[in-house]
Amino acid sequence: MINAENLTKRFGKVDALKGLNLHVKKGSIHGLIGPNGAGKSTTIKILSTLVHANSGDVTINDIPLKRGISVRSMIGVVPETPRLHETKSARSELMFHAKLYGMPRKEAKTLVSDVIYAVQLEDAADRPTRGYSTGMKKRVALALALLHKPEILLLDEPMSGLDPVMRKQFKDIILDLKEMGKTVLVSDHDLHTVEELCDSVTIIQDGVTVVEDTIESLRHQTGSVAIELKVIDDSAMGGLGSKLSSLDCVTDVSQKRGWVIVKVRNPETDLPVVIRMASDHTGILEAKQTMITLEDIFLKFAGGKRG
Amino acid sequence: MVNLLKGMFAIIFDELKFSIKRKTITSYILFSFVFAISLYGTYMQEYGAVQGEMPLLSILPIELEKGVAPLTDFAIFLMTLFGSALQSASVGAEVSPDVVLPVDIGITLFIIAPVLIALSSLSKMAVRLCASSIARERESKTLYQLLVSPQPRVTAYLSKFIGAIGATIPMIFLVLAGVVWIIGASFMPYIEVEQAVQLRNQVLVASIVTTFLFASIGIFISTITRNEESAVNRGGWILKIMLALATLWIFLPIFSVAGESAASMIEKITMISPLTLDMVALYSGEMFNQYMLIQLVVGLLFLFGGIMIFVRQDVEY
Lengths: 307, 317
Fold this sequence. Notes:
The complex is a heterodimer of chains A (307) and B (317).
Chain A: E1 2-11, E2 14-24, E3 29-33, H1 40-47, E4 55-60, E5 63-64, H2 68-74, E6 75-78, H3 90-100, H4 105-118, H5 134-146, E7 152-156, H6 164-179, E8 183-187, H7 191-197, E9 200-205, E10 208-214, H8 215-222, E11 225-231, H9 237-245, E12 250-256, E13 259-264, H10 267-281, E14 284-291, H11 294-301
Parallel strand pairs in A: 3-8, 3-9, 6-7, 7-8
Antiparallel strand pairs in A: 1-2, 1-4, 4-5, 9-10, 11-13, 11-14, 12-13
Chain B: H1 2-21, H2 24-43, E1 46-48, H3 70-91, E2 100-102, H4 103-139, H5 143-147, H6 153-166, H7 169-187, H8 193-224, H9 228-250, H10 252-255, H11 260-270, H12 274-284, H13 288-312
Parallel strand pairs in B: 1-2
């Protein structure tokens, strides 16, 4: 659906993208994650045709990005900080947008009312947008992006600046979009949100793709469950770590504040093996099991830098 | 294609609506007031088919040639008037207390006062509105809305241009009405119908072409400037310089005292201004088409230059 190969972008002396690759499957929700300045927004701006890449090939639905009109008809964009014409109401902003797509007036009116209802903005739709909160502006931006029923949605940090209630509503709307068969590309700092929403992710750093896969597959590479072990004798921690590392089922072993953290792929079969080996080696004071999160995956691949 | 046209009209209408709302009504009123006063000043003069010779010109230190510059013409007329009065007094004839202007002097005054006011006001509005059009949206970061729609950037640019320039149309009609009125009320008994029609058409064409040129300059500035205030200020400064050069052209005969080469150099500099070209073209009648063509070509260069930059620009949201 979205294919970007060796994408580069330079702003003055700064290389924002240095050969980024991105592949998003049709009908999926794909997360684009990376630290600040990694190139997430630049990538979305390039896909939106707002920013021109210096080199690289991009196709959306097999149509090259250069064919701007065809591509833009297929996409809806929600910017990180949506700006609206302050003197216009959300309804007139949407009506203008509908005219840009050449919609007949009657059809546009119906669609505008539908989309206002979908983003739950009925009460404020006829007020000038200058008095809108960040959340309301985001809703208008989402309504603008949805109005022409695009196949693909590009959401740049859609949850930033939203309160928990609104975040939940936004998540539900995005999940509904997937149900409707839309393809969604989400860039977000909140890895929990991405984890809840996305089927697959691309982790980027310094303008380069670090890893790209389904979350399930990344979990398989990283380990899906971690067991944290507190040993009686701290001096035995090093030896225990090396011994556990030698096990095939263990994907990673680390130490943190007196705990040995062991990651395994299959908790049902692997955890008993790990605990047995650990107790054979030294006395175990405490053991607890935690799920490997996207944050752990991100930290592993992005080298500890957070977005 | 139909959808593109619908979208284009939507942008034109949106920009036109915004342009008219934006203090433009005040500008219309102010312009009408100043233009009406200057027209009335021209109308209040008494015109006649006076084509006297210049009896006292020989005493002047410089040689004055009629039909070269408005100021010289006016000086010649004043000298003629003074000479006639002296002659009449010496022969004891009756001298009328009223000053009767030859109609060509009336037309010259009309060109250097009401028409210059009209052209500079039209240019000011065109450059201001067009300079604001894209820079305003870029500054408020709302430009992305337009550019993520299926409208090509060229269409968006031209639509914004047409919308902004559209707000000057009422002023152009006002200028036309003023021109028709002054020609009919003051000059018609003394000039041929063909000459009257030509004068009317030339003022109309000059108004449209100059407005187009300054609008093109305005939208070009808007394309390369990040915020609205800077864009409008830059446009305003360009217009001020052009107006100053046109005014300098009117007072050009004064510089001939400093020598012919200095005056010639100053004249060449003043010709940079499209407003000077308008003055020269309307005053002499010759070179009108060429000067309008020059302005049109320069306007198109700015317009297409702006488009070339705009389609390659990165837009932030």
